[in-house]
Every structure is written in C-alpha cells, then in structure tokens.
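Protein modeling request. Please complete all fields; requests missing the sequence field cannot be processed.
Requester role: graduate student
Desired output: 3D structure, token encoding
Chains: 1
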Amino acid sequence: MPTFTYTSLDSSIRLLEVLPDKLNGRIQIRLYKTMLPASHQCLPYMWGEPDEGHEVLVNNQVYSGREDLHTFLEVAAQKLANKSLWIDTLCIDQGSFTERSHQVQRSGEIYREASRVLIWFG
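Delivered output (122 residues):
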C-alpha cells in the first residue's frame, strides 16, 4: 500500500473520521477537507515518546504514527466511529512549515467552533 501524502489545504481545514472496521488489521481513517463552521470535536494532541511504528490507513494509504495516538484511535473506532474529529497531528501536514504555521494561527477558531474538546490521558 502507498504511504499517505497530504494534498494542499488552501483556505479549508481537514477533519477526520475513524471508521469502525479495520482493514488488514489496521485502523481506517477518512481524512477530508471542509470549511468552517463545520460540526466537529477536537482532540489536543500531546506528543509522546518519538516512535513512529504504529500504522493506520488514512484514505487507504499507510500513515505511521505514535503509540499514544494509535491507542486513542483504537478507542475512537469503537466510541467515536464516523464522528468528525480535528486532531492536529493528523489534520495538519506536520512536514509543511507553511501549512503548520497557517493552521496553528487558525487553531483558536477551530477549537471555538468545536462541539466538544476531548481530553485523552491514554
């Protein structure tokens, strides 16, 4: 399977949905672009120990992330399946300084528009 790559955002944001069913043992995520206001919940993401070995499928492409994010996504597949979420580490292309800077400036608006802010203690 191909490795996940981001497409440009323009003035939109990305939201994701964790799908309830796994594919080949991997959690599936649908990542999509939308404009604010949009119904969504936010998860402020706390970076854990740097390990990138936990694979999920984002739009049918392999994304390798950290264990604490993977653990949250496992629970979300059961409790928040098909709900729109904004998780900065997935919804922002962390490899693009320009996008990261622009989206961080919009984070106040993204959180204000959220129906709920989730807290994950792992």
